[in-house]
Specification:
two-stranded antiparallel sheet, elongated, 4 helices
Length: 123
């Protein structure tokens, strides 16, 4: 019970990088939890013999959801690219600068394997 509840909360919650929920990116609509559902008169109607308008409305809605899903996925991809670029810039900013060493420069070399208890720098 606890694992399924955690999984549902993870799938339905909005991600800061994606700015959408994974459920919305997968299905193209926001998740409607049982506490948010209210029966509509149109939903309770006679489904045994649907008329042409109902079928046309369902097809139109399905096409709209497919188009919206494609757009949401493109927006999410661009949001991820922006977040990755920000993360890369932060990494570069806080990384220690490297000094350029060329052939012929004198450097200090630390031999830790020879002297484990005391620091020994050799030229």
């Amino acid at each position: 019970m606890c694992t399924s509840t955690l999984l549902l909360s993870r799938i339905v919650s909005t991600s800061s990088q994606l700015r959408n929920s994974p459920f919305e990116l997968l299905y193209g609509v926001r998740a409607r939890l049982p506490r948010n559902l209210e029966p509509d008169a149109e939903m309770i109607g006679d489904w045994a013999s649907p008329d042409i308008d109902t079928v046309q409305a369902i097809v139109t809605r399905a096409n709209d959801v497919v188009d919206k899903t494609k757009q949401l996925r493109q927006v999410a991809k661009s949001n991820i690219d922006v977040a990755q670029e920000k993360q890369k810039q932060r990494y570069i900013r806080y990384q220690t600068p490297h000094t350029d060493i060329t052939v012929g420069d004198r450097v200090m070399w630390y031999n830790r394997s020879r002297d484990t208890n005391q620091i020994c720098l050799t030229p």
